Amino acid sequence: MKTEVKSQFRLEPVVFHTLNTLFMLIVVIVTLYPFLHTMAISFNDGSDSLKGGVYVWPHTWTLQNYKAVFVSGTIYHAAFISVSRTVISTVLGVFLTTMLAYTLAQPHYIFRKKISMLFILTMYFNAGLIPNYFLIKDLGLRNSFWVYILPGLVSAFNLIVIRTYIRSLPGSLVESAKIDGAGDFRIFWRIVFPLCTPVLATIALFIAVGSWNSWFDTFLYASSEQNLSSLQYEMMKLLGSTMSTNNDPSMMAGANTNQTQAMVTPASIQAAITIVTAMPILFVYPFLQRYFVVGLNLGSVKE
């Protein structure tokens, strides 16, 4: 009887780890399959993709889909605009939001609750699209590069996350620095800012992804200025033109006589556009992953 009990207890960890491993493998497959399928479509001949049967490996390899994406010279300038707005928005957004969060985290600041409430209200109430448009126009930001930067410079959600993290830091560090004669900005820059690296990396990733993927603000505020067009907006226009071209019977007839055009379909163009716009974030994320995991546990441990 004792032998059976011991063998049962020895068997339980093996069964658990086996089932856990199988479950995690299923999760990994379900998570990676859409990306691998999209990549396979982007490298596969468009006409061959229409036949089906392309899953995670292309049947007929081609770079024609990517050539169709980069054939326009405006793509490169649009990529420069997207990179510029992403870098500037991330740097300024993280720095200014952290400064404001540090101020609102100080218990001796008498207006901290009122200002925090004003920011929280913006998370629940929005004036709407039309008042927003007229506000941007009256501020002179329309058809300006700064329309990508200034409106979303400080986010209420990011502010609350950083403020919560700063409150979890030991107050003795700030008190000892003040005793040594350090001012608020010196304390912020030399003590608080370096200690906030996990949460700042998390917020930086949020801001960078949001800014990189944004195209609707270009459509609303800078669509008439080609030199301000972002990469995502150009990709959206390219996808729309490709779909309209392939839906036109006359254009389709011409495509049959052109090998280059025949190899490109809306599905293959969409897959190539998805890969092109996703790759920069995929390259950046591994460097921020360890900070991102720590940042997800903000406020779980407090002094």
> Approximately how much helix is present in the residues?
over 70%
- Write out the CATH superfamily name: MetI-like
Amount of beta strand:
under 5%
Distance between the termini: 50 Å
Topology of this protein?
Layout: H1 2-42, H2 46-49, H3 64-70, H4 74-104, H5 112-124, H6 129-138, H7 156-167, H8 171-179, H9 184-195, H10 197-213, H11 216-221, H12 231-246, H13 249-256, H14 259-262, H15 266-295
Helix pairs in contact: 1-15, 3-15, 4-7, 4-10, 4-12, 5-7, 8-9, 10-15, 12-15
Outline the structure in words.
Belongs to the binding-protein-dependent transport system permease family. The chain crosses the membrane at residues 21-43, 75-103, 115-134, 146-166, 187-209, 267-288. It is a multi-pass membrane protein. Residues 79-288 form the ABC transmembrane type-1 domain. Keywords: Cell membrane, Membrane, Transmembrane, Transmembrane helix, Transport. This protein has 303 residues and is mainly alpha-helical. The chain has a single domain (69-303), classed as Orthogonal Bundle (MetI-like fold), CATH 1.10.3720.10. Helices cover 73% and strands 0% of the residues. It is built from 15 helices and no strands. It has helices at residues 2-42, 46-49, 64-70, 74-104, 112-124, 129-138, 156-167, 171-179, 184-195, 197-213, 216-221, 231-246, 249-256, 259-262, 266-295. Helix 4 crosses helix 7 (156-167), helix 5 crosses helix 7 (156-167) and helix 10 runs antiparallel to helix 15. The model is unreliable at 248-262 and 299-303 (pLDDT under 50).
